[in-house]
Amino acid sequence: MPVYVLGISALYHDAAAVILCDGVIIGAAQEERFSRLKHDASLPIRAAAWCLKKAGITAADLTYLVFYEKPLRKFERILATSVATFPKSWGAFPRQMRTWLGDKLWLRGTLCAAFGVRPDRVLFCEHHLSHAASAFYASPHTEAAVLAVDGVGEWATTTLWRGSGTSLTPISEVRFPHSLGMLYSTITAHLGFAVNEGEYKVMGMAAYGQPRFRAELDRLLKLDPSGGYALDLDYFSFHWHPTRSGTPALEALLGPGRFPGAPFTPEGGAAGGAARAESQRWADLAASAQAQIEDAMLHLVRHAKAAVGTDALCLAGGVALNSVANRRIAQEGPFAHLWVQPAAGDAGGAMGAAMWVWHAVLGHPRQPGLARADLGRSIPVDRAREMLTDLGAKFEAVDDPPASAAADLADGKVIGWVEGGDEWGPRALGHRSILADPRSAETKEHVNSRVKYRELFRPFAPSVTAADADSWFDIPAAAQEPACWMLTTAAVRPEKQATIPAVVHVDGSARVQVVRPTASPVFHQLVSEFGRLTGVPIVLNTSFNLKGEPMVSCTVDAMASFVRSGLDVMYVDGLRVERPK
Amino acid sequence: MGHLRRAYLGTMSEVAWRLPGWPQRLLTEFSLAERGSMVDMLAAAQATPRREMRRKYFLHALDEGRHAGIFAERVKALSGGRVARSDAVIEDAGLLQDHGIVGGKTLFERLGELEFLAFVFVAEADAVEQFGVYLDRKLPDPETTAALRDILKDESFHVSYSKLECERYRREGKPVDAALRAVRWRRMKEGWMRFTRDFGEWASGFWLLLLYFGAVGPFRLIARLESGGWRSASGASAVARNGLDEALAAARLES
């Protein structure tokens, strides 16, 4: 009788469901791809239903359902923090209590009702243990230091573990409200971006600036000699204010924040001197925050090496999605191997919780590491054909989709590319991607402004075949694995930068994806074919979505994004769809 | 009933379009509602068993997406580029509040085709009436007036096509009038539920605030925030337990 474990993450952000059968991942999906609500936090009922369908079972067949947090311990933290920050927390307290007393405190019953499982089959895994497990058990390493860094789980905001075989042993932790994730999110909000959404925009903005606010930011965060850190809480209000994360003292220290949507024009353009100076100030602030988080992560990583001493480091939590910091960890850190799983944020907690049940609770041996990211919903070609016909799309079946797409790209077309299952995690890795020719400088502006309708400063990633990666990019030796999931940046070799201007960021770096034939065979064929046609084995790759929307998943979503964007052509598996007139 | 509603909308219009900051708030709500409708219509296009309806729902969804964009642009224009920081999610992530997924089921899945069409007809007719009242009252901002006129044309078309489809169902002998009644009743019920929820939130907020100052406050004397820096991991993780049975027992705990 096979053992089925369903992992669930939800109720904060990025809800997801993952199903394991005898320890093997059968499917993994984020609720946002079904509900079309970006970062959807609601219980992943649709994602879970898809997982069960993929496994060919019903909820009654589940051996265990595991939630990625311990809700009562989280409630304890919220209550204790409210008391400790009395009376400043008067605005947050009623809101939090209403949510918890009305809903989250009764989670076991809610899970049973929503997913149709018996109460004795519902398990709970600590938030940071879920993160740590998602990184360690999905990695190829059997001995590793495991570092989880995020906003907050129950109490912990940063945890260090020793991973050995199937055991994960906690070593030390930093507790809320001291949190690197919350620090970065506070700066994200100060720069006018949405928390839990705009952090990677800060990372992109940082390349335009110089870290001239570093001294000011160092007043917010103190790194201690024992390898830990502490925030100066006078500057933060995320632990007691219902909506604001920084205090007036922060504004006094860093200057006024940016209004959401305010034009960012550090390189001039139509903006006048004052606007340009203000943009430059934001960029410098972003650069300072980025430099600070990188230094803090290096500080933690060095402590991890001293405490655990392994060759490999598995990194998890939302901060592990900071690809620029990952590059510095790989380049300057003491570990020979770095591993970050594609959904390092909260969605990944669903996978970690399920894997933890299989290995640590049920005592089963390790499985091979995660080799592919296309773990989500795929589109049966007959269904795609029927949908496209009904929608009035003009399309044709092509014999060799990668070759046809590569020819379109070489012809200067910007294409939507839907192939196989949805990607697991926030990065488009060649299954739900917008692709373009990286050889023209205009491509970047065109795709940002006319295709995705987003900020012009946002960089694009290059996808390069594994065989050619080293000749174009200087990828740190320790970051070879994260590069497969687009979770590190790399310097573009100086002599190559002029050849691929659309994917070279202003600082000469790129958030590169190394495409292995084993991980994404069809996408690898496409990039290879583009290389054969043009001599450049690299394509510009960005997620197939429009601003503010999750990545497309099914044919209807793809078609809706296609017609609303400036894409020239779309491929849905073997079908080539023309742009409607 | 119709007169009452129009009078109510007219009065609200006088308030909503003339007080500082309120037009932005109203337009933001419209934008979010249209985004939610787009999601609902795309889900309907995906799920409908009637293939001839798929394109209609799809085109309707595209209209709603366009309207959401127009409203969002007006919010930005009226805010003079100074969108509140707490509204960064609207600028950034298009926060949805009004999409119809409840308990994992889309609006279409919950209602079925006939009642969904009846819902579209009733909701769009209400929107036409609402926008008509706003236009009659002469909005203070000509650009928003033009945008509303543009959107009103689309909404009128949505009323016509959904009405035609309902009529087709009627000719097939389906209980269209019952579906329309059910939709109107549900909208009234949902309106009442929203009101009671808001009132409940206000009332519970009041009592929780009393609790906060009366019962929570005194414990402040003994409560401290955690200090920074590394500390020994205190998590009662099951991996640290002896034996698998104990690990399983620990995993069952919510704390």
Q: What's this entry about, in short?
A:
Chain A has 581 residues and is of the alpha/beta class. Mean pLDDT of chain B is 87; it is low at 92-97.
For this entry, give a set of tags.
heterodimer, A: 581 residues, alpha/beta, Nucleotidyltransferase, domain 5, DHBP synthase, 3 domains, 8-stranded mixed sheet, 5-stranded mixed sheet, 23 strands, 37% helix, 18% strand, B: 255 residues, mainly alpha, Ferritin, extended
Structure description:
The complex is a heterodimer of chains A (581) and B (255). Chain A is of the alpha/beta class. Chain A folds into three domains: 4-138 and 345-361, 2-Layer Sandwich (Nucleotidyltransferase, domain 5); 175-340, Nucleotidyltransferase, domain 5 (2-Layer Sandwich), CATH 3.30.420.40; 381-578, Alpha-Beta Complex (DHBP synthase), CATH 3.90.870.20. In chain A, 37% of the residues lie in helices and 18% in strands. Chain A contains 20 helices and 23 strands. An eight-stranded mixed β-sheet of chain A has the order 13-23-22-14-15-21-16-20, sandwiched between helices. In chain A, helix 6 packs across helix 13 (346-361), helix 11 crosses helix 12 (323-332) and helix 15 (401-410) packs across helix 19. Chain A is globular. The N and C termini of chain A lie far apart (55 Å). In chain B, helix 1 (2-16) packs across helix 5. Chain B has one domain (2-192): Ferritin, CATH 1.20.1260. With 255 residues, chain B is mostly helical. The chains are: A alpha/beta (581), B mainly alpha (255). Chains A and B meet through helix 2, helix 3, helix 4, helix 5 and strand 5 of A and helix 2, helix 3, helix 4, helix 7 and strand 1 of B. Strand 8 (167-175) of chain A pairs antiparallel with strand 1 of chain B.
